[in-house]
Recover the amino acids of this structure.
């Protein structure tokens, strides 16, 4: 438990200092904990688990600058995961008030448990909803793995504009996933 | 979408960040808010005309110190509530201490005063203007503070909104104290805090909607 905390914290801090592989390991390992956390609390909504894992992951990424190195990592991650969980439940409660729940019989066939859970959202379709000036920098730097400088050259934007566009794009993506628009 | 694809997406490229986002955002927000509130105060109210003499009176500085300590305590609360997983711990006591001290001072002033004077000490001559004016001056600061907070990561939205409101109210009161001619401790104890509670209530009400992320 303490060892996990120490290792994850180390990985995040290295990631925040610009070490991408450490950051990758941090996020990968975090998924396992997030999934377990949400599964335990969403026993009646199993289809939501993977969506929520991804939403929390994106939130953690977008809010990574709020992590204070002096603070226990567990407390920080837990607060974000809980916030996203409560947000989902509140959204669903409002949704269920406005919509009649499905009949029990229909419900029986509509929920299937496939082993490899995949979130129901399609990343490509979500990215398509972003404006070009955010979408292209994300595609170049994040999917094609180009550097910020190369992306800047390709898009004719300045390097700092590319960074800002990626940042804003990921925030917009988080809002789309949450279903704000 | 597979979660591992999302991890790849997020981890590709440089994940390094600004190390002091809270200082930068709140510095900007409070700077802009204070500038707007000061312009409002100068334009609509003006500084008190006896300011040059008032700065030699201890009570003027007691008032400033009172409001400034409330602003500091609220800022501590705001900073903690802007980060996921941070607790308030002893911060509420930092806020309550100057309030109690001012109440004790006010009580001793009232006890010393002859009974017919007491109501006048409490109400001053401007009590009915004090609340709305402090609230008005705090509005630009509240807007800026909520903006700064939303970009960080508040998770207890109502409480965070209330703290942002208290901070704006305290800074608004600080600006207002350059205009306000009242110098009696009972007046300050009653009306300044009440004025700050208006933006705090607005912040608490708007927090859940405006601070979501």
């Amino acid at each position: 438990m303490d060892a996990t905390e120490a290792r994850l914290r180390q990985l995040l801090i290295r990631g925040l200092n610009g070490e991408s592989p450490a950051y990758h390991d941090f996020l990968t390992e975090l998924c396992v904990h997030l999934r377990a956390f949400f599964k335990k609390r969403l026993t009646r909504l199993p289809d939501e688990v993977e969506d929520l894992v991804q939403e929390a992951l994106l939130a953690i990424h977008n809010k990574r600058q709020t992590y204070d190195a002096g603070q226990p990592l567990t407390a920080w991650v837990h607060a974000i995961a809980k916030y996203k969980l409560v947000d989902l439940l509140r959204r669903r409660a409002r949704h269920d008030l406005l919509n009649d729940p499905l009949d029990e019989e229909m419900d029986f066939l509509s929920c299937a448990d496939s082993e490899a859970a995949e979130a129901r959202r399609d990343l490509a379709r979500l990215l398509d909803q972003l404006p070009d000036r955010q979408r292209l920098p994300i595609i170049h730097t994040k999917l094609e793995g180009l550097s910020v400088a190369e992306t800047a050259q390709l898009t004719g934007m300045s390097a700092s504009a590319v960074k800002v566009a990626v940042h804003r794009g990921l925030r917009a993506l988080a809002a789309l996933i949450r279903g704000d628009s | 979408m597979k979660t591992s694809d999302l991890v790849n997406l997020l981890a590709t490229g440089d994940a390094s960040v600004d190390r002091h986002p809270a200082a930068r955002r709140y510095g900007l927000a409070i700077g802009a808010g204070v500038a707007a509130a000061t312009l409002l105060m100068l334009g609509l109210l003006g500084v008190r005309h006896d300011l040059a003499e008032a700065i030699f009176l201890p009570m003027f500085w007691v008032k400033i110190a009172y409001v400034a300590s409330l602003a500091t305590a609220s800022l501590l609360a705001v900073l903690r509530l802007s980060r996921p997983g941070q607790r308030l711990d002893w911060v509420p006591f930092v806020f309550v201490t100057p309030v109690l001290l001012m109440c004790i001072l006010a009580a001793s002033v009232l006890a010393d005063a002859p009974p017919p004077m007491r109501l006048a000490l409490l109400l001053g001559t401007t009590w009915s203007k004090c609340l709305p004016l402090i609230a008005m001056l705090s509005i630009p600061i509240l807007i800026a503070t909520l903006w700064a907070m939303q970009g960080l990561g508040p998770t207890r939205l109502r409480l965070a909104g209330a703290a942002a409101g208290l901070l704006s109210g305290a800074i608004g009161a600080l600006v207002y104290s350059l205009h306000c001619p009242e110098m009696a401790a009972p007046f300050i104890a009653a009306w300044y805090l009440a004025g700050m509670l208006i933006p705090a209530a607005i912040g608490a009400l708007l927090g859940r909607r405006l601070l979501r992320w």
About this structure: Chain B touches chain A at residues 1-19, 21-22, 82-86, 152-153, 155, 212-213 (CB under 8 Å).
